[in-house]
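Worked example 3 (structure in, sequence out).
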């Protein structure tokens, strides 16, 4: 299968071309340089949760074995159209940076392993493919949409998370930056406020679907504290803040946070309810199988 026809020119450029491109950007006028792409990494990244899972060949795979390499941990499914569309780009990335990058494919909701093997063979996938156990999915905060990719630096820390259709130019830039190679992009850092790991939701000052514009700064601080202290009743075993990030469609957490905003704004705040057991640390594995992740058909989105 010929994958190269689907790839942008950036993959075909040698290191010399990349260095010349970087020099050209440096010589551009200031207003032109303002249009240079921006890539963002977590400022103080968390270690990537390790795992030990067998690949389709029965070989044990764990992240610790890839220390010193950049890792793209790609959660996908054979039935996911955008996931299948990004495979040629991933194959090319693995080929170009074979000595310093390791892509790991984590499939979810596999009903037929033979079908998975057929896809791997037909696509000529050149990186390990594993079937993701529920505990691995939950260790990474739960996978609510596909594809989802975690970018892990050479020290084994998660520096970015992308949800949606793979963007080969963005990923090439990120890999090069993490390998200390020349890039034609501006590199920024951000604080993880729950977008990468839910346990950091307590750092967030804004939550999806929660309007605190009517509150004073002091009241907003009180409301945020309550969001992180009270557990959601939808069964997710998360705090309200974590649930808003993990599942913005949850009506229960949306209604309850709205009620808290109203209570705090009127000065009639109610005593705090206990948080869900273990919620501040990480989501607990569900008692029953987790629902299948949704397909994220839109272009890849990064956090920040």
């Amino acid at each position: 299968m010929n994958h190269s026809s689907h790839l942008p020119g950036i993959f075909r450029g040698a290191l010399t071309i990349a260095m010349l491109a970087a020099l050209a950007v440096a010589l551009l006028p200031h207003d032109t340089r303002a249009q240079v792409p921006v890539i963002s990494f977590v400022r103080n990244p968390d270690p990537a949760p390790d795992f030990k899972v067998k690949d389709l060949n029965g070989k044990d795979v764990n992240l610790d074995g890839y220390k010193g390499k950049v890792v793209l941990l790609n959660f996908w499914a054979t039935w996911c159209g955008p996931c299948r569309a990004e495979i040629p780009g991933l194959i090319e990335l693995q080929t170009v940076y074979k000595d310093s990058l390791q892509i790991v494919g984590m499939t979810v909701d596999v009903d037929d392993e033979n079908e998975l093997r057929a896809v791997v063979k037909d696509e000529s996938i050149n990186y390990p493919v594993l079937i993701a156990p529920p505990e691995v999915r939950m260790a990474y905060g739960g996978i609510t949409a596909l594809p989802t990719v975690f970018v892990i630096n050479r020290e084994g820390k998660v520096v970015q998370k992308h949800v949606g259709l793979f963007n080969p130019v963005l990923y090439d830039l990120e890999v090069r930056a993490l390998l200390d190679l020349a890039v034609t992009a501006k590199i920024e850092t951000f604080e993880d406020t729950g977008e990468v790991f839910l346990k950091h939701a307590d750092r967030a000052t804004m939550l999806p679907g929660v309007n605190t514009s009517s509150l004073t700064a002091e009241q907003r601080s009180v409301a945020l504290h309550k969001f992180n202290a009270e557990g959601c009743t939808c069964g997710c075993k998360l705090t309200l803040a974590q649930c808003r990030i993990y599942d913005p469609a949850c009506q229960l957490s949306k209604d309850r946070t709205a009620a808290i905003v109203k209570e705090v704004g009127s000065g009639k705040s109610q005593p705090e309810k206990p948080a869900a057991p273990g919620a501040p640390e990480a989501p607990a594995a569900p008692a029953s199988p987790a629902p299948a992740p949704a397909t994220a058909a839109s272009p890849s989105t990064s956090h920040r």
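Notes: The longest helix spans residues 81-96. The mean pLDDT is 83.
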